[in-house]
Specification:
Chain lengths: 275, 167
C-alpha cells in the first residue's frame, strides 16, 4: 500500500496570522542510507510572504550546570564526531513561502565513502523573515520613526542512519530536593549504542500506598551524557516519606514508531523525605 | 490545542476512509486513504516591538509587559519539550547611515500568553533553556529602550530582532 504523506495537521485550523514565521514539520528528520533523502514541510499561516533560508551545523542537546537542556554547538567537529552537517544539503536553500501556502525542502545526503555504520547528526536551521514591517509613527509630526523586524530561526535535528543502529540508556545518580513548592529531580543519563536515545522521561512521586501525588512527562534526547533537572509541582506536601520513580522509555507520541529506535525501559527510584 | 487538532485530524482521516468505503460500494474496487501526521513546531514573531514616534534627545522605553507595543514571539511544539532559545539583538537601528542606539533589552518567558506567572529574562545571545507547557506553548516577550541623540537626523529607523529556538 502506497503511503501518502499528508501533513494535514499543518493546515488544520490554521487561521491567517499577522505574525512572521512558518510551521515546520516534522520537528526531527530521519534519513537512512537506502534513500539518503528526507523532507521538511513549511507552511506559512500568515497574511504576508515569508522569506526562508536553510543551513546546517553540528550540535546536540546537552545540559548546563543547572541541569537545563541546551543545544551545544560544535563549530569545527573533528573526525571522530558523528557530524553529518557537512554532507547533507537542502534544496532549495532560499525560498519565499507565499501566504497560506506550503513548500517542501528536500534533504539529500552525500556521505563520504566508507562511512561506518551508525547514526550521524546535524542541526537544520530554518530562518524565517517576514516582509519589512511598516515603520510606525505619524509622518506629519514625527521627526524620527522606528520599526523593528522580527526574524525567527528554528533549529531541528537531522538523523542519518547507516547499517545496524541501536540505542540504549543508563540511568544513575537519581536524587531529589524540595525547592519551594516543587520537587527538583536530577539524574545522570548516558546514551549507549551507536545512536542517540530518543524517548520520554516520566517522573512520578508516590506515597506509601503507591498513590501518585505528582508527575511529569517530557520528551528527551540523549546524545552523549546529560544530567537534566526536572521539577514536579508538589504544592504543600505533608511531612513524611515518599518515593520518586523515574522511568525512561522510547515511547514518543510525536514521532512515528518506525522512526524511534526501540530500547527496553529503564527505571530507578529514590526515597523522598519531607521534614 | 494539538490534542484538539489531532482529534479533528483523526476525524478527517476517518472521514476520508469512510468516504472511500462508501464510494467503493458502487464499484468493484476499493481504495484506501492514508495520512501521515507529523508533529510540527512553530516559532512566530507574533507582535512587533513598536516604538512609534520618538524625538531626538528623548529616550523611549517599551516594556515587555506593554500589551500593545511590546514584542512577542510565540513557540508551539510538543508538550513539555525542552527548547533552547537565544536572541540576536541590534545595538543600533539605522536610517541612511545614521544610527539610533537601542538597548536595555528586557524580556519575559511564560507558558501562558501573559506577563504574569512566568520568569523575567535578559535577552542575550547566550543560549538558555526553557520548557514548553504541557500543551506545547511558550511565549517570549521583549522590550527595549531607544536613546535618540539630540542631533539625530529625521528618518525611518529600522532593525531586526532575531529569536533562535532549537528544538
Amino acid at each position: 500500500m502506497k503511503r501518502t504523506g499528508l501533513s494535514l495537521a499543518l493546515l488544520w485550523g490554521a487561521a491567517p496570522l499577522a505574525g512572521q514565521g512558518v510551521v515546520i514539520a516534522p520537528h526531527a528528520v530521519f534519513m537512512d542510507a537506502r534513500t539518503r533523502s528526507g523532507a521538511v514541510l513549511l507552511y506559512n499561516p500568515n497574511t504576508e510572504p515569508v522569506e526562508v533560508a536553510i543551513s546546517f551545523f553540528f550540535g546536540y542537546p546537552a545540559t548546563d550546570s543547572a541541569g537545563i537542556i541546551v543545544v551545544r554547538t560544535v563549530e569545527h567537529p573533528d573526525s571522530t564526531s558523528p557530524s553529518a552537517a557537512s554532507w547533507i544539503q537542502a534544496f532549495p536553500r532560499r525560498l519565499t513561502v507565499p501566504p497560506l501556502e506550503r513548500q517542501t525542502i528536500r534533504l539529500l545526503a552525500s556521505p563520504p565513502p566508507g562511512l561506518a555504520d551508525g547514526e550521524y547528526w546535524a542541526r537544520l536551521v530554518i530562518s524565517a523573515k517576514g516582509g519589512q514591517l511598516p515603520v510606525t509613527g505619524v509622518a506629519d509630526t514625527a521627526k524620527v520613526r522606528v520599526g523593528l523586524t522580527l526574524e525567527v530561526r528554528t533549529i531541528i535535528g537531522v538523523f542519518y542512519r547507516k547499517g545496524a543502529v541501536h540505542t540504549g540508556i543508563s540511568l544513575s545518580g537519581l536524587r531529589t530536593a524540595v525547592v519551594g513548592d516543587s520537587l527538583a529531580v536530577w539524574a545522570r543519563l548516558t546514551q549507549q549504542g551507536n545512536a542517540a536515545y530518543i524517548g520520554s522521561a516520566h517522573a512520578a512521586l508516590v506515597d506509601s500506598t503507591g498513590k501518585t501525588l505528582a508527575e511529569m512527562k517530557a520528551p528527551i534526547g540523549v546524545y552523549y551524557t546529560m544530567e537534566p533537572r526536572y521539577a514536579l509541582p508538589i504544592g504543600a506536601l505533608a511531612p513524611g516519606r515518599y518515593r520518586l520513580r523515574l522511568d525512561l522509555s522510547t515511547a514518543r507520541e510525536d514521532l512515528a514508531p518506525e522512526l524511534v529506535l526501540p530500547s527496553p525501559p529503564v527505571r530507578d527510584s529514590v526515597e523522598v523525605r519531607v521534614p | 490545542m494539538y490534542t484538539a487538532s489531532k482529534a479533528a485530524l483523526a476525524t478527517l482521516v476517518l472521514g476520508l476512509v469512510a468516504t472511500a468505503a462508501v464510494r467503493a460500494q458502487g464499484v468493484n474496487g476499493s481504495i484506501t486513504a492514508t495520512a501521515t501526521v507529523q508533529s510540527p513546531i512553530t516559532v512566530t514573531g507574533a507582535q512587533n516591538l513598536a516604538f512609534g514616534n520618538v524625538f531626538p534627545g528623548v529616550a523611549k522605553t517599551i516594556a515587555y509587559s506593554d500589551a500593545t507595543n511590546g514584542g512577542r514571539f510565540d513557540v508551539t511544539g510538543q508538550g513539555s519539550a525542552a527548547v533552547t532559545y537565544s536572541f540576536t539583538l541590534p545595538t543600533n537601528l539605522t536610517s541612511s547611515g545614521n544610527n539610533l542606539p537601542i538597548g536595555s533589552w528586557t524580556g519575559y518567558l511564560n507558558t501562558a500568553n501573559s506577563t504574569a506567572g512566568g520568569s523575567a529574562i535578559t535577552p542575550s545571545a547566550t543560549p538558555a533553556g526553557a520548557t514548553l507547557s504541557a500543551g506545547g506553548a511558550l511565549y517570549v516577550f521583549v522590550g527595549a529602550t531607544v536613546t535618540p541623540p539630540s542631533n539625530l537626523p529625521a528618518g525611518s529607523y529600522t532593525g531586526t530582532v532575531t529569536l533562535t529556538v532549537s528544538y
